[in-house]
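User: What would this chain look like folded?
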Amino acid sequence: MIIVAFAFVYIYIQNTRVTWRAALFGGAVGSVTWKRAGLLFAKFVVGSTSYHAIFSSLLIVILFMIWLDLSWLILFLGGQAAFFQHPHYALGKTRFLQLSNRLKERIGLVVMYLIGERFVHGQKPWTIDESAERLSLPGETIKDGLAVLQAGGLVVETGKGNGSFIPGNAVT
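Assistant: Here's the prediction, encoded as structure tokens.
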């Protein structure tokens, strides 16, 4: 149940789309770590009862704050584990790209070509993730290029909610 609870957090509270597989992996890592940390922390608290009664109320507050901080760290650790759905980022193969205007135009042209090619052949539209993987570029770079193309009316989002695009003139 704890794995499912962690997976739920990683799917619905993230600022990005997280697959079930990645969320369950992150949930497993987070819940196992949380359970082990809880056992160790319980042993530590039981061992700290030998302190004087004067410090016990202060100690409880301090221990609570430590446990709260540890719980957040474990939650973030599971989130990092769920990030394996983007291995090219996790392995350090991509980083933030500063692109010149010429490169932005070339990326836009290549993306337009890919979208048009699939449309002409009657295949399913390219998604942002597929385009990023095909071109070996970060998804944010593709999103930025598609935003410019979409503002110019050259591409239109299909409305399926998966970030897929078709040529703009085919719709109008």
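The chain has two domains: 2-85, 101-171. If you want, I can go into more detail on any region.
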